[in-house]
User: Fold this.
Amino acid sequence: MSKAKRRIPISRVIAALILCLILAGAVYAAIMRSTKTDNIITFGSIKMRLIETTIKDGAETDVADGFDENITSSTSVSRNVRVQNIHNHPIYVRLKLDMTFRKDGQDDSADHLVNYDYNETDFTYQDGYWYYNSVLAPDEVTPNLITTISFNLGLTPNQFKGGTFNLKIDAQAVQSEHNAETALESVGWPQN
Assistant:
């Protein structure tokens, strides 16, 4: 006896072909969605210059590393601290001053031994920093943050003989474009 041939209706063949096409499209779409891409992000750049000077013999001179000033004859010294924007984008600026005392190879904090004549008109103190109250435009220089350092050496200045006071200035800047309205509200400051 011969076997009867089975016929598959054409509608089932077409349905199977459509189902295969749909599955192939879904697999192709999934592959396309997981394609690796590289994003390029461009940040604005900022540059500033810290300016530290002193008045000697009536003239303003730069304070270089290793600058030596004898404080045994006076309880205060001239020190001008300001910042210049040396790039083409406006910036916000903040500064922090720390005094250390070094004697016999030992560094100690000396902030309690000094007073600074801070410029509270152009700068505002917050969170350990002095923020310049204005945007610093390209090529502009801030007013002085300080002009004098006074030493409170008390009745025993001889204990400081042979030692060295060192003023550490931490100057930081962030772009003011696309940032907050003031330096105090701005974001992007380096984390300490």
